[in-house]
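Problem statement: downstream parser choked on a complex file, so we are re-checking the raw output for the uridine-5'-diphosphate run. The parser issue turned out to be on our end (a line-ending mismatch), but while we're here, posting the original submission so the record is complete.
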Amino acid sequence: MTGQASVTDLPSTTVLGLPVSLVDMGATIETVARLVEAGQPRWIVTADAAGMVQAQDDPALAEAYRTAALVTPDSQGVVWALRRKGYPGIGRVSGVDIVDQVCRLSSETGVRIFFLGAAPGVAEEAAERLRLRHPGCNIVGTRHGYFPADDDALVANEVAASRPDVLFVAMGIPRQETFIVRCLALTGAKVGVGVGGSFDVFSGRVKRAPGLVRALKLEWLWRLALNPSKIGKVRLLPRFVRLVLKEGR
Ligand code: UDP
């Protein structure tokens, strides 16, 4: 489609056969603003190591990566893989930080944001806290993420009533990506971003790791300690490391 090249012409490489954009937060937010302007529905994948492993066995998830306008390095594992490939200057661009920075953008420009996902009440709590953090930020609607896939189109129509520009979907990988690929156009939003547990973090129900733990690149271990059900994701890490080492530089 014409008009898309200008926003996707950002540099990228591949990790485990999947695209990863070589971007920082500034370029990511600039892309969000340009996509809103361009008006075609496009999505951004926030790539973590577990998701990239899942995509090896999940063609729909792999397709979501391949057709994304942008794939940001969400986790330290992906940043490590990029370093090995010769891109030492690329740091994390996480879903949590994208939500925060798009809310800041919205407070300056009025961009309309919808929060879809997490348990009942969580998205609204997250929205309330972000409105305090970025006064004037235009979060136009919220909805919880516990509904069967059969209701996807119904929920998408519900979202559309709020006329969002940017739709954040926090329902976990690969559910959030499936929803975005199937239903973003129905919602009328121009940008869809899967952001995992971000609403839990902003609602205050899940604490972000302290600065020191983050500086030591151990946020994943902190989250695991607080939420042992995440062990399923951590179990995928050795396979990620094996595949990256096999892939070479
Ligand atoms: N979630 C949801 N609907 C579901 C399953 C999960 O909205 O059917 C939410 C869950 O409450 C949590 C988020 O999705 O807020 C998943 O967070 P997690 O940190 O596990 O995401 P991931 O690690 O997969 O990015």
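For whoever reads this later: The CA atoms of residues 116 and 169 lie 5 Å apart.
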